[in-house]
Amino acid sequence: MNIRAIGGGLAVAVAMLSGVVHAQGRLSYALGEAAALSPGLNAGTLSSLSNGMGVAQQRPSALRSPADAEDYPEYPAVVSNNYGQWLFGGHFARQSFTGFNPGYVVGPGDLIDLRFWGGYEFQALLDVDSQGTIFIPRLGPVRVAGIRNADLNDVLKSNLRRVFRDEVGVYAALASAQPVKVFVGGGVVRPGLYGATSSDSLLHFLDRAGGVEPEAGSYRSVRVLRNGRKVSDIDLYEFLTQGQMPLVQFHDGDIIFVPPREATVVVEGLVAWPRRFEFKDRITLGELLSLAQVQDEATHIRVTRIDGPDRRSDVHALRDAETASVPVSGGDQVEVYADRTNATIVVRIRGEHEGSGQVVMPYGATLGQVLAGVSGTPLSDVSQVRLYRKSLATRQKEVIEQLLRKLEESVLTARSKTTQEAALRTQEAQLILQFVERAREIEPRGQVILQDGIPSDQLVLEDGDVLEIPRHSHLVGVHGEVYLPAAFSWDESAGVSRYIEMAGGFTQSGARDRVLLMKPNGAVRFAKVGGWFSKGRVEPGDEILVLPRVDKKSFQFGKDVVEVIYQIAVAAGVLVRL
């Protein structure tokens, strides 16, 4: 006996035993596998097998969902900048529409759940045959093709009364739509023949075909063809912008054709949808901006046009009524932006002061002008005011991120000469990558260093700046790699070494040659341990930060790690230990 024939028979047996014989789609798939395994099982044999098992009589009320079918492969979604491309990510393809709207028209292949009670009792699931009829015992064939779903019950009731005079109740409902196969072609990612049900949506078939091809297909005119004639012309933008989607009842052999893409315009800048938009015939700037949804802060529009070898730009005010009627051509680029000058700035004030927590100043206001309006308290130390700036904090974060990326690349691309060295480098890499992960969570303060001797009326403030008015302090903080981090009362005669001794001294990982003295105004300097500070003594309000020691001899990337630790300590005033 042929081994392939045995395999084919086993495939049929498995299909029967697994309980899927009641589902026509699953059985067809199993029989298809059997045919592939055994050429001796021809189409007639397989058809008789399926009929013998009563598939038509036991078909469920709804065909399977593509999500449950093993023969539906998964495809990655196509990523592009086209407006509407996000429609085709598989969500429509994975669900088959099993409901029926009142306007659905019954056709061959549909399954009707029919029940009579009273003077005549009958219950069955009946297929609409190729002639559009269903056969009802004691009543005969009844034509139902072409009847609207909403009228089905009344039509069957009127036919029943022609035969039975006694009161007979009628219940008729569509159990499942007819299975159909529809061609999808033109500008789609995967043209082909796709099977579903007649009630499935256009988006279901398009999604099964991978969606509209980004560089070739049109969203504005998707056509449904039947016997060479156009049944429907659907604009997908109407679904995206208005939620409108014409319901098409598909027939076997219908064609969904996506024509070539029309003209396009790219919209960028302050819009909700910075995308490439397609349009038919012509479009105005107002219509285009309505699709892109302009943000509130936008003020102007720049339209860049390509005119042969020349490139020219036109600028339009958004509030100008005539702007909306400006025509836009294919290939143009539209940028929406804000062109405002700040009339005022807002500066936050925190710390030891009285009054409002923020002040509004004219654009170009200086630090001196703001401080002149600040009401201090007896404890305020305005001479040690601290300035924090968002733009500086952002820049500090970028510098740290660049160093961390460089460190990561060095670790991940390092080579080893021996197996023992490779094992050591692996352990080192794990340690450094953990350090990098923690370091990325640090947020810099963005403190601006206010140098002594620079008049405060020369320092121009920015919108969003934060001024902190500290209290008069007679404390000196000691942090980092010491045994007892704490704050100590200021001693005029004490130097950096003395304060570190009061904090318990250096830990085993403390670096004696990397001690930072951080001044209240943001200035940071290296301190000399064992003597006086190189550029002045410790003063009230200062902070001493002992950095950790990194063994550069045993650590291949010790130098890079030290640089990152220093940058974080200066920018954020904290330590990240390796």
Describe this structure in words.
- The chain is of the alpha+beta class.
- Helix content is 25%, strand content 25%.
- The protein is built from twelve helices and 27 strands.
- The strands form seven sheets. Strands 7-6-10-8-9 form a five-stranded mixed β-sheet, covered by helices on one side.
- A hairpin with a 5-residue loop joins β23 and β24.
- α1 packs antiparallel against α2.
- The two termini are 71 Å apart.
- 27% of the residues are buried.
- The N terminus is likely disordered.
Write the layout of secondary structure elements.
Elements: H1 3-17, H2 24-37, H3 43-52, E1 111-118, E2 122-127, E3 133-136, E4 140-143, H4 152-161, E5 168-176, E6 179-186, E7 192-197, H5 202-208, E8 222-226, E9 229-234, H6 236-242, E10 255-258, E11 263-269, E12 276-279, E13 283-284, H7 285-292, E14 300-307, E15 310-317, E16 327-328, E17 333-337, E18 344-351, E19 358-362, H8 367-372, E20 386-388, H9 390-412, H10 419-439, E21 447-448, E22 466-469, E23 475-480, E24 486-489, H11 496-502, E25 510-518, E26 524-526, E27 543-548, H12 558-572
Helix pairs in contact: 1-2, 9-10, 9-12
Compact summary:
The protein has 578 residues and is of the alpha+beta class.
